[in-house]
Design goal:
Blueprint: E1 2-8, E2 11-19, E3 29-36, E4 39-47, E5 61-67, E6 80-88, E7 97-100, E8 103-106, H1 110-124, E9 138-145, E10 148-151, E11 155-161, E12 165-173, E13 176-184, E14 189-195, E15 202-209, E16 212-221, E17 225-240, E18 247-262, H2 267-285, E19 292-295, H3 300-312, E20 317-321, H4 331-342, E21 348-354, H5 364-373, H6 375-384, E22 389-394, E23 401-407, E24 410-416, E25 428-433, H7 435-450, E26 455-460
């Protein structure tokens, strides 16, 4: 059998055995080395004796069974089903994990883990992204490949079935099983035709050998007809501009042509499919989008609930980027938001703002005086000696407003279409931001804020 091993910094990350390849590969030795971070990542593939499996000991959990070709633990992909034995180990590789309390945490940066995962996928076929805690484990596989094809509308043809096999095929159409066929193979065959007997569009297939399930696929379909919509684009039309850019290009759609390949649909079926497609398209576009919330004047409570819920769920850090946070026309509203922020559980709370001048907005000195005069904030100051909020006054403003949070290295946030001091006054949108978008904006604006070229003054209150 073949043994694949992944080693990182001298520590084993993964061991994968492939049984049944002895006759095909008489001698096998392969080694691939890449540098990831501080250590070398090494893949080796060697031919080993089946007796090596007897040395697998001290595992915590053992699971075994048949994997379908689409399983994330199947290294053969669409090529075959695989019988798997998975030996799970509680002790994980300390090159990539730290253990603290009752769980493991990443020791290495996420981008390095992504590199390792891609290396593992490339050389072993395992999609380790789906469960990184499989690192440190041992996998044993035996594959079973099966080739079959559709025989027009009649049924399917299965190739090279060994004697002692049993094939079960469920032919389906529109989520209905229209026909089930059970075929027993008494002698080895090159091809076995299995007819549905009724119109069908897709099928399941199960193959047993000596009463053991060795192959299973569900909802298999075949391309019997194809519609190709071809469009030939014409050259772009480019217009000259004066200020915002040198020019702008317009795309031209050009002419199109539709080609149908294969058996045409019956008129009734084509009508029903087209009708269903059109109606589903309308249903999909009308679905509510919870990533964007449209606000109208007077909906201040709706804005408070949405923004407040994001702020209070952060356990580590909150950043508010609002250049007009200290506008002189919205001081009372600003103080209310500082009250909310002061009571949020995050360990680090930060506000970035800009002051054009005393007639427009408070600077950091004036802001502190307003905070000290506020009754509720004064109670917090006397009780805790500090609000625990770090304020940053910058030399220049940014246009958009953001609330960004971080909890256990997971980022989230909101992009807000108006300032905190005018949330109830305008039409605007609040956009929920993904982890990646929040992290990108966070890194850029935090760096911009604390840069000495942008920062006038900062202080924790």
């Amino acid at each position: 059998m073949i043994c694949d091993r992944i080693v990182y910094g001298g520590q084993s990350l993964l061991t994968v055995y492939h049984q049944g390849f002895d006759d095909e590969i008489k001698e096998r030795r392969l080694k691939i080395v890449e540098k990831v971070g501080a250590y070398k990542l090494v893949f080796t593939e060697t031919l080993v004796s089946d007796d090596e499996l007897d040395n697998i000991t001290n595992w915590s959990i053992k699971e075994e069974g048949l994997l379908t070709p689409d399983s994330t633990k199947n290294p053969y992909g669409e090529a075959a089903c695989a019988y798997m034995i998975h030996y799970e180990y509680a002790n994980k590789p300390l090159r990539i994990f730290n253990f603290s309390g009752d769980r493991y945490f990443l020791r290495i940066p996420v981008d390095k883990l992504i590199q390792i995962n891609e290396f593992v996928k490339k050389y072993t076929g395992l999609d380790i992204d789906k469960n990184p805690m499989n690192y440190g484990d041992i996998f044993v596989y035996r594959s079973f490949a099966c080739n079959y094809r559709a025989n027009k509308e009649e049924g399917i043809v299965v190739e090279s079935l060994p004697a002692g096999s049993t094939v079960i095929v469920r032919f389906k159409k529109s989520d209905i099983i229209v026909s089930t066929k059970v075929v027993r193979i008494d002698h080895e065959t090159e091809e076995t035709e299995i007819k549905a007997g009724k119109p069908w569009t897709y099928h399941d297939i199960e193959i047993f050998f000596d009463d053991e399930l060795v192959y299973y696929r569900k909802d298999l379909s075949y391309i019997r007809r194809m519609q190709i919509n071809m469009q030939i684009k014409e050259p772009q039309k480019r217009i000259r501009l004066n200020k915002i850019a040198n020019s702008y290009a317009f795309e031209r759609n050009g002419s199109g042509h539709v080609s149908n390949i294969g058996d045409p649909l019956e008129e009734y079926e084509e009508m029903m499919n087209a009708s269903a497609s059109e109606i589903k398209k309308r249903l999909n576009v009308e679905k509510a989008d919870d990533q964007v919330t449209f606000m109208k004047p007077g909906e201040i409570q709706k804005a408070i609930d949405l923004i407040g819920s994001v702020m209070q769920t952060a356990s580590d850090t909150i950043w508010i980027f609002d250049s007009y946070f200290t506008d002189v026309n919205g001081i009372k509203g600003m103080l209310d938001w500082i009250r909310i922020l002061a009571n949020c559980p995050a360990q680090s709370k930060n506000v970035t703002f800009y002051s054009k001048g005393p007639n427009n907005a408070l600077d950091l000195v004036a802001l502190k005086k307003e905070i000290e005069r506020d009754a509720e904030l004064g109670i917090i100051l006397r009780t805790r000696n500090a609000l625990g909020i770090h304020f940053y006054q910058t030399k220049s403003p940014i246009h958009d407003r953001f609330v960004l949070t971080e909890t256990d290295k997971i980022y989230s946030g909101l992009a807000i279409g108006t300032s905190f001091n005018s949330l109830g006054d305008h039409y605007y949108c609040v956009f929920k931001l993904s982890h990646k978008a929040s992290q990108t904006i966070w890194n850029e604006l935090e760096s911009w804020t604390i840069n000495s070229n942008n920062l006038i003054k900062d202080e924790e209150v």
